[in-house]
Specification:
This protein is mostly helical. Helix content is 57%, strand content 7%. The protein is built from ten helices and three strands. The chain has a three-stranded antiparallel sheet with strand order 1-3-2. The longest helix is centred in the C-terminal third of the chain and has 58 residues. It is elongated, with a radius of gyration of 37 Å.
Length: 305
């Protein structure tokens, strides 16, 4: 029908008559976007990666001594949670002295009105300072200041700094592999890289300390077993001598025949005990040597038996 057509020429005439309004809106929108973008704080993301390599061999009863890392979902998720734990994060922040950084510690920032929850550019932020604080709190644009004890202020400031730090960290498993990716976002690229790398370094140091501790425990256990075996060998030798004395048996080296089956069994047990002792002594020597060179449990080889 003729009524469904659009008069493009008429529409153009309407817009032309309002060209000042249209032009003003375009200019204001462009200037506002430029000012917002110009005053927006840039953020940079740095990434580091940690390789989780499970031990290829185990010492003694690993279930009782330590747990090997495998790429299953539960293990990788556990490692990710450990990296994001507040105690671990606090150690990283202490190491890098980030509690003294205003980016994380709000107590070190310039004092002002209530804390705005909106990310505003500087011109709009100045405009918001003209609005009464009560109105901002009522509308939810700002949080109401909470009075705290002076003794609690340092602890609360520290916890708030940790919360701010956790907002910039992202830890994830790289597609089901042995890699854990650590991303950190900060206002400065050097700071982001320094934090991402330090998180990885401290995590690896913790894993190394755990392995060395497990190696020490295994060494102590082997030493205790060796002491027990030595006592068993001594008891077996004494039993052999007592048996010979009680039955008037002489050593075969003196030309006398030992025809008692029990004496043969005792000698066989003595030989087995001595061989077991020598084997465990060799294993203990290998463990001590690897520990002295600072190697991990995954390099021990056949000591896993």
């Amino acid at each position: 029908p003729a009524g469904d057509t659009v008069d493009l020429l008429g529409l153009f005439r309407v817009l032309w008559r309002r060209k000042l309004l249209v032009g003003s809106l375009v200019v204001l929108g462009t200037v506002g976007a430029y000012l917002y973008g110009k005053n927006l704080t840039p953020e940079y993301t740095a990434k580091s990666a940690v390789l989780i390599e499970p031990p290829k061999s185990q010492i003694i009863d690993v279930q009782a001594m330590m747990s090997g890392l495998t790429p299953d979902g539960a293990t990788m998720a556990t490692q990710i949670k450990l990296i994001q734990a507040r105690t671990f994060v606090a150690r990283v922040m202490d190491d890098l002295k980030l509690f003294d950084d205003p980016e994380f510690n709000a107590a070190l920032r310039p004092e002002g009105g209530p804390s705005l929850r909106l990310s505003l550019s500087e011109p709009l932020r100045k405009l918001m300072t003209l609005v009464p604080n009560e109105w901002l709190i009522t509308t939810g644009l700002a949080s109401e200041p909470v009075a705290v004890l002076e003794s609690e202020a340092p602890r609360l400031a520290r916890e708030a700094a940790i919360d701010n730090f956790l907002k910039g960290i992202e830890v994830s498993n790289e597609g089901g592999t042995y890699l854990i990716g650590i991303n950190y976002t900060a206002e400065e690229p050097e700071k982001a890289a320094r934090i991402a790398n330090r998180i990885a370094e401290i995590y690896v140091d913790d894993q190394l300390k755990t392995k060395l501790f497990a190696t020490d425990r295994a060494s102590v256990w082997l030493q205790e077993r060796l002491d027990t075996l030595k006592e068993e060998v001594r008891s077996a030798e004494e039993a052999v001598e007592r048996y010979r004395s009680q039955n008037n048996l002489l050593d075969s080296n003196n030309g006398m025949l030992l025809n008692d089956q029990e004496l043969s069994d005792l000698n066989r047990e003595l030989i087995t005990a001595k061989a077991d002792l020598a084997e465990r002594q060799a294993k203990l020597s290998m463990v001590r040597g690897l520990r002295g060179r600072g190697q991990g449990l995954d390099a021990i080889g056949e000591v896993g038996n």
